[in-house]
Amino acid sequence: MSLHVIDHPLVQHKLGLLREAGISTKSFRELANELGSLLTYEATQDFALEPHTIAGWDGATVQVQRLKGKKVTVVPILRAGIGMLDGVLGLIPSAKVSVVGLYRDEATLEPVAYFEKLAGELTQRTALVIDPMLATGGTMIATLDMLKQKGCSDIRVLVLVAAPEGVEKVTSAHPNIPIYTAALDDHLNEHGYIVPGLGDAGDKIFGTR
Ligand SMILES: O=P(O)(O)OC[C@H]1O[C@H](OP(=O)(O)OP(=O)(O)O)[C@H](O)[C@@H]1O
Ligand SMILES: O=c1cc[nH]c(=O)[nH]1
Ligand SMILES: [Mg+2]
């Protein structure tokens, strides 16, 4: 199973702040983006580099390294995934954005798809799928199924908090897709919410409810 729980002190400190009851919309947004950046840093450790020659500050040539023609698409899952997008793009500003919209039916907990606008050349791109919450895993599996069906083969999942039930389901359906998360939490409650979790991440990011 390719689950990466990032235990870096900055990640764990920011996650702790995010869990506070009564956190402001402003703080939640800032922290979600900061954690999005930190997870991106971890999820891109294997990106290839190539040597490159430049003119340095004194006119002498300098051998530097640059990313080797990596095409990336960031895939925020509406709505809540938007809350991590700026953080990811801060580190990979040239990435194309493929937006998918799914919500979880509150009664059945099944994902309902309502929007899809994908970047081109998906077969050549690394996809970073972002969503703060991986709960039952239904939303993530539907997104990964869709990306694979469009020919995307290098896919990585970035979530702020994951439930064991959802991780099990996603890794069973897609064993080769790594999941990067700040926390593997305890369980899902009877409404499918992650415990201890964050509450409704979409509502906290958008200030709704
Ligand atoms: O793993 P699952 O059980 O499928 O649940 C996780 C999904 O639920 C939340 O979205 P929600 O349906 O609340 O939509 P929103 O982003 O519009 O708030 C969350 O952001 C995930 O997309
Ligand atoms: O805990 C959860 C589960 C699904 N969606 C959320 O926003 N939070
Ligand atoms: Mg929501």
Automatic annotation (TrEMBL):
<comment type="similarity">
    <text>Belongs to the UPRTase family.</text>
</comment>
<dbReference type="GO" id="GO:0004845">
    <property type="term" value="F:uracil phosphoribosyltransferase activity"/>
</dbReference>
<feature type="binding site">
    <location>
        <begin position="131"/>
        <end position="139"/>
    </location>
    <ligand>
        <name>5-phospho-alpha-D-ribose 1-diphosphate</name>
    </ligand>
</feature>
<comment type="function">
    <text>Catalyzes the conversion of uracil and 5-phospho-alpha-D-ribose 1-diphosphate (PRPP) to UMP and diphosphate.</text>
</comment>
<comment type="pathway">
    <text>Pyrimidine metabolism; UMP biosynthesis via salvage pathway; UMP from uracil: step 1/1.</text>
</comment>
<dbReference type="InterPro" id="IPR034332">
    <property type="entry name" value="Upp_B"/>
</dbReference>
<keyword id="KW-0460">Magnesium</keyword>
<feature type="domain" description="Phosphoribosyltransferase">
    <location>
        <begin position="5"/>
        <end position="208"/>
    </location>
</feature>
<dbReference type="InterPro" id="IPR029057">
    <property type="entry name" value="PRTase-like"/>
</dbReference>
<keyword id="KW-0808">Transferase</keyword>
<keyword id="KW-0021">Allosteric enzyme</keyword>
<protein>
    <recommendedName>
        <fullName>Uracil phosphoribosyltransferase</fullName>
        <ecNumber>2.4.2.9</ecNumber>
    </recommendedName>
</protein>
<keyword id="KW-0547">Nucleotide-binding</keyword>
<dbReference type="InterPro" id="IPR005765">
    <property type="entry name" value="UPRT"/>
</dbReference>
<feature type="binding site">
    <location>
        <position position="200"/>
    </location>
    <ligand>
        <name>5-phospho-alpha-D-ribose 1-diphosphate</name>
    </ligand>
</feature>
<feature type="binding site">
    <location>
        <position position="104"/>
    </location>
    <ligand>
        <name>5-phospho-alpha-D-ribose 1-diphosphate</name>
    </ligand>
</feature>
<keyword id="KW-0342">GTP-binding</keyword>
<feature type="binding site">
    <location>
        <begin position="199"/>
        <end position="201"/>
    </location>
    <ligand>
        <name>uracil</name>
    </ligand>
</feature>
<keyword id="KW-0328">Glycosyltransferase</keyword>
<dbReference type="InterPro" id="IPR050054">
    <property type="entry name" value="UPRTase/APRTase"/>
</dbReference>
<dbReference type="InterPro" id="IPR000836">
    <property type="entry name" value="PRTase_dom"/>
</dbReference>
<dbReference type="Pfam" id="PF14681">
    <property type="entry name" value="UPRTase"/>
</dbReference>
<feature type="binding site">
    <location>
        <position position="79"/>
    </location>
    <ligand>
        <name>5-phospho-alpha-D-ribose 1-diphosphate</name>
    </ligand>
</feature>
<feature type="binding site">
    <location>
        <position position="194"/>
    </location>
    <ligand>
        <name>uracil</name>
    </ligand>
</feature>
